Amino acid sequence: MNIKRITFTICLLAGAFLSAPLISSAQHAQAVKATQFTPGTIWADNNGVHINAHGGGLLFDKGKYYWFGEHKIAGGAGNRAMVGVHCYSSKDLYNWKDEGIALPISPDSTNDIAKGCILERPKVVYNKKTKKYVMWFHLELRGQGYKAARTGLATSDKVAGPYTFIKSYRPNAGFMPFYPEGTPDADKVDCANPKNKSEGFFCRDLPGGQMARDMNVFLDDDGKAYHIFSAEENFTVDIAELNDDYTAHTGKFSRVYAGHQTEAPAIFKRNGIYYLIGSGTTGWDPNPARWFTAKSIYGPWTYRGNPCKGAGAEITFGGQSTYVLPIAGKKDAFIFMADKWTPKDAIDGRYLWLPITFKGDDIEINWAEKWDLNVFKK
Ligand code: DGJ
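# DGJ complex -> structure
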């Protein structure tokens, strides 16, 4: 090898090394075969590289879990989408194989998902009728900060992609909320006379569609899917029905905890009760989580306080909710997934996965340095 080629090779290796958080040999060894979760530490994939799937969601498909999340790059620029949505697969939830970029951003600067846009919290569900994998995400158009507040849609015939971008928009334009039985009159909106700030934002956005930022998708036992998102300048969470194909909003939705500024909604169901976990709105900084329960997906939802207990509970142990995973084939086994953001070096964000403990129908989330799935047997 001549000097030029040696220098080139060294540069290539250094480049590859610097583009991902460094992993110690102990952590690397663990990546070979992990048998436990170690929340907040570097989580190496099958290549020994820290998993790059922030604000993610999981899908269980044909015996494997697929983890979709925001691929972030190093530095502050990593808070914008420079690459796309990354996908990993696993059979045991501890060890993850890199499946590559499921949805690449577009090199075309006029495309909705142009490089440099903000593409957050992607979630994928499978539609049995169309046999399509359907990905929804929060989209902010390039160069507009968080002003656009749109939801984006992409679909694929294959679980790990590639996904094709279909459209982005603000949902439920022209539709008034659905009020489940038991909704107090005080919670009903009259756009001739909005009673507070959040109703004002709702009415302002009625013609063009509601703002849709932090989000999740929930698939109910009856095959219906719902898009749950922070609306009205984050003052309210909307729970919105998707059509049979899961590719559009039907116009039926309810407003949850209006006026209280909730982000990062994650939803699950146990024993016929719906649970919603969210956060406050403090940018990338952690704040106390909040949980709610309801007997119907549309509510009325009851505020239940902070599900986190013990030291660090007041800041969700440094994280923000992202998803709640029901473990396939196990009863009462749910993992609370949160992101510990590192906005100055976005790629270094960590994952906090913790088991949810049930006390009757109440929940608790406790910190654990390390844990494994055997906790669910007790
Ligand atoms: C908090 C949200 O939950 C994140 O997804 C992201 O949008 C940040 N805010 C941006 O500040």
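# post-check
The chain has three helices and 21 strands.
Residues 3-375 form a domain with the Tachylectin-2; Chain A fold (CATH 2.115.10.20).
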